[in-house]
């Protein structure tokens, strides 16, 4: 069983993967789609015909004016806790390269922007020279395969513990409200602990945190070699702790009305854009998830405001998690929809959560999203693109190894070819 769970703490609530209600294509979108290719280049000299139903998912896409993608599949950010301390390991290069396909956007696991940002053991960092050195071969392995690699910038805020903090102080948040739901615990070297009461950030600490995001972005792009960064504003972590009014009870200009609760997120976006250029910056938000007790009383109003404000920056993309997802499990209110945000946001829109190839293709075809991020199924199927093209069955994902420390469930999910070889070897052994 996984010893730590950054985004999972509940059993799966069985629910069919279903397409969220669809929007008309964003007419104001700056993104341009071109016609679908008839064959798709999987890399390594292999290409396959694109079946008609998969054509939307395998159509090229210009991302933010800078990156030419060959398809609409995105590798979702997935924490795997295989770093040693905060140093990414060579196994990460193998893991990401196994899943890298030319012209595919991949987003890294959440990566800590400072030591105080950390809330999960063995999650990597972006603030020490040795971390950046260790990222270089990982990034190179992905880029050598022709994929586009963004690093997810992570500050866990109150989802941390004094054991991880400088001087053992309480972790940073928008307020002193702690995570109280009993299903959420923080794992330290002393085992599982209840989440502590955080400290409400002072104005200096807010300024510092904004600067920390910008510095981490520069480190990611200029030192480690990532193509861009995704600011993690989702799933109940620091930025979400400012956005959501179930957490943020401030009475200054960072709390209260939506404009104030959005201020920190927008300051981070601005600083990160200044640091690396807006066309290398994405933002992830989860309007509806209650993960880590992060709920908002007016998710539509709050996130529409944000989406509209983001139009001014010319970001690479806005990435949103479907309402059916709470952290990493399907649950929640299926009546809600990302549609209003898709309409309010004029740039590239990525939807994530509960998608398989067919529902992702339908989401692109209908204009619900420009790109679709895949988490669990792509994690468990390094040749996800190929399986989609062949309508091949998928390996099941193993929840127990999502966050475990070994290579099992990390490097050993088989490709179709490996499965066939195993079957052939088993058949030969029987004869
Ligand atoms: C093992 C695991 C780790 C995850 N880590 C992150 C993370 O670091 N950052 C993030 O924004 N979301 C994270 N998520 C959420 C996924 O990006 C995604 O939103 C979620 O799995 C739903 O998509 P899916 O149905 O395609 O799996 C994680 C999910 C899983 C399964």
TrEMBL record:
A Pfam family per the record: Oxidored_FMN
Cofactor: FMN
CDD domains xref list: OYE_like_FMN
InterPro entries attached to this UniProt entry: Aldolase_TIM, OxRdtase_FMN_N, Oye-like
Occurrences of domain NADH:flavin oxidoreductase/NADH oxidase N-terminal (ranges): 57-391
Domain of life according to the entry: Eukaryota
Leader sequence segment: none
Molecular function via GO: FMN binding; oxidoreductase activity, acting on the CH-CH group of donors, NAD or NADP as acceptor
SUPFAM superfamilies recorded: FMN-linked oxidoreductases
Family membership noted in the UniProt record: Belongs to the NADH:flavin oxidoreductase/NADH oxidase family.
Listed name of the protein: NADH:flavin oxidoreductase/NADH oxidase N-terminal domain-containing protein
Origin organism lineage: Eukaryota, Viridiplantae, Chlorophyta, core chlorophytes, Chlorophyceae
């Amino acid at each position: 069983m996984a010893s730590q769970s950054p985004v999972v703490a509940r059993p799966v609530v069985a629910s069919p993967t279903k397409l969220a209600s669809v929007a008309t294509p964003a007419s104001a979108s700056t993104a341009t789609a071109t016609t679908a290719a008839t064959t798709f280049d999987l890399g390594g000299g292999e290409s396959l015909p694109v079946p008609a139903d998969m054509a939307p998912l395998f159509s090229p896409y210009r991302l933010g004016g800078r990156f030419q993608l060959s398809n609409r599949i995105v590798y979702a950010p997935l924490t795997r806790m295989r770093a040693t301390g905060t140093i990414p390991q060579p196994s990460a290069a193998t893991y990401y390269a196994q899943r890298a396909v030319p012209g595919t956007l991949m987003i890294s696991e959440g990566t800590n922007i400072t030591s105080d940002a950390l809330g999960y053991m063995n999650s990597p960092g972006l603030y020490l020279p040795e971390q950046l050195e260790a990222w270089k071969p990982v990034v190179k392995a992905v880029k050598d395969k022709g994929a586009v690699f963004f690093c997810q910038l992570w500050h866990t805020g109150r989802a941390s513990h004094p054991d991880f903090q400088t001087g053992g102080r309480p972790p940073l948040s928008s307020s002193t409200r702690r995570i109280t739901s009993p299903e959420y615990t923080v794992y330290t070297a002393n085992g599982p602990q209840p989440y502590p009461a955080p400290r409400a950030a002072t104005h200096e600490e807010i300024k510092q945190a904004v600067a920390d995001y910008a510095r981490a972005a520069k480190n990611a792009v200029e030192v480690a070699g990532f193509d861009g960064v995704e600011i993690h504003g989702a799933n109940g972590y620091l930025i979400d702790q400012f956005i959501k009014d179930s957490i943020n009870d401030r009475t200054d200009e960072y709390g209260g009305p939506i404009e104030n609760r959005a201020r920190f997120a927008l300051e981070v976006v601005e600083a990160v854009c200044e640091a690396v250029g807006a066309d290398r910056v994405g933002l992830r938000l989860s309007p509806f998830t209650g993960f880590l007790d992060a709920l908002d009383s007016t998710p539509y109003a709050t996130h529409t405001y944000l989406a509209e404000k983001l139009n001014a920056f010319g970001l690479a993309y806005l990435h949103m998690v479907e309402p059916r997802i709470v952290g990493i499990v399907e649950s929640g209110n299926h009546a809600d929809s990302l549609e209003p945000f898709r309409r309010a946001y004029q740039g590239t829109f990525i939807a994530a959560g509960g998608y398989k190839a067919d529902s992702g293709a339908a989401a692109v075809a209908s204009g619900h999203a420009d790109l679709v991020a895949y988490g669990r199924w792509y994690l468990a199927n390094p040749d996800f693109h190929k399986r989609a093209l062949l309508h091949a069955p998928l390996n099941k994902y193993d929840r127990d190894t999502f966050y475990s420390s070994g290579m099992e469930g990390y490097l050993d999910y088989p490709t179709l070819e490996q499965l066939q070889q195993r079957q052939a070897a088993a058949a030969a052994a029987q004869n």
